[in-house]
């Protein structure tokens, strides 16, 4: 609306922006693909050095740091390649009926292994009969990222609850933690690539900065959205809300 009884129509040619986005996406995909092979070779040599009796004493700490960083780089490359596939593949590719409950059992086991001796209480409350129409690999990646983030950012002995249920608006998956929480000013930018609330803590925990970007892409491909509720010092709730049309009969 523009003035009384008037309308203003604005048009903008976005061809150039669209072309630049394609170039950026292709560049990231190609570079990530090319980096993966030499990085694998470097990591293999570092592991060999770590197991050798030659590199002990002061070298031991240096080799361990090299191994940790090459592993981190490998995870970043894999996440970038996954994002590239999500951006270029048809949203209908690989779709079928997904048994979410068995998937979440696997995610739960992985989360407990990631927690290790930190003593987290990790619980699952799920509707075993509620199934979803979607891509099982993509959904597992999204759910795993949310749960593993909760494990990484929740202090020792903290509580993490996974929940899968049918609400009035459709199927929902939520992860509730008693972690450090997130300030309101960070919430709108959480799903940006490489955006970090706390850079130091993120690197210590082994995160790539791409997990929530992957979650956002997966949910968009499943007509779903991510809702985040958080308060510093009181934990966070990440909820994936799917439409009723995604319920598998």
Could you explain how this protein is built, in words?
- It contains six helices and eight strands; from the N terminus they run ααβαββαββααβββ.
- The strands form two sheets. The protein has a five-stranded mixed β-sheet with strand order 2-4-5-7-6, covered by helices on one side. Strands 1-3-8 form a three-stranded antiparallel β-sheet.
- It is 48% helix and 17% strand.
- The chain is globular, with a radius of gyration of 21 Å.
- A hairpin with a 5-residue loop joins strand 6 and strand 7 (236-241).
- Helix 1 runs antiparallel to helix 2.
- The chain has helices at residues 15-51, 58-88, 100-115, 136-152, 199-205, 211-221, and strands at 96-98, 121-126, 131-134, 159-166, 171-177, 225-230, 236-241, 247-248.
- It is an alpha+beta fold and 249 residues long.
End-to-end separation in angstroms reads 44 Å
Summing up helix and strand content along with how strands pair, one would put the structural category as alpha+beta
Number of strands: 8
Which sheet architecture does the biggest sheet show?
5 strands, mixed
If you compute it from the alpha carbons, what radius of gyration comes out, rounded to the nearest whole angstrom? 21 Å
Kindly state the percentage of residues in helix: 40-55%
What pattern of helices and strands is seen along the backbone?
Answer: HHEHEEHEEHHEEE
Poorly predicted residue ranges? none
Strand percentage lies at 15-25%
**DSSP helical segment count:** 6
Instruction: Provide the spatial order of strands within the biggest beta sheet.
Output: 2-4-5-7-6
Overall residue-averaged pLDDT value: 89
Described by the principal axes of the CA atoms, the overall outline is: globular
């Amino acid at each position: 609306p523009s003035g009384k009884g008037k309308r203003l129509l604005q048009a903008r040619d976005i061809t150039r922006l669209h072309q630049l986005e394609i170039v950026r996406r292709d560049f990231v995909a190609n570079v990530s693909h090319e980096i993966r092979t030499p990085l694998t070779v470097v990591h293999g040599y570092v592991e060999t050095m770590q197991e050798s009796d030659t590199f002990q004493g002061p070298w031991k700490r240096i080799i361990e740091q090299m191994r940790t960083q090459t592993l981190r780089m490998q995870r970043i490359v894999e996440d970038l390649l996954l994002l590239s596939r999500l951006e270029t593949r048809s949203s209908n590719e690989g779709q079928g009926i997904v048994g979410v409950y068995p998937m979440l059992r696997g995610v739960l086991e992985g989360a407990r292994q990631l927690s290790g001796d930190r003593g987290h209480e990790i619980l699952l409350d799920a509707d075993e009969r509620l199934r979803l129409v979607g891509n099982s690999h993509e959904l597992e990646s999204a759910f795993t990222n949310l749960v593993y983030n909760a494990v990484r950012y929740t202090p020792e002995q903290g509580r993490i609850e996974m929940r899968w249920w049918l609400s009035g608006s459709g199927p929902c998956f939520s992860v509730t933690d008693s972690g450090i929480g997130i300030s309101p000013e960070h919430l709108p930018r959480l799903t940006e690539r490489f955006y970090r609330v706390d850079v130091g803590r993120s690197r210590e925990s082994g995160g790539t900065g791409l997990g929530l970007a992957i979650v956002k892409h997966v949910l968009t491909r499943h007509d779903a959205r991510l809702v985040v509720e958080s308060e510093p010092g009181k934990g966070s709730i990440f909820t994936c809300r799917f439409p009723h049309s995604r319920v598998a009969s």
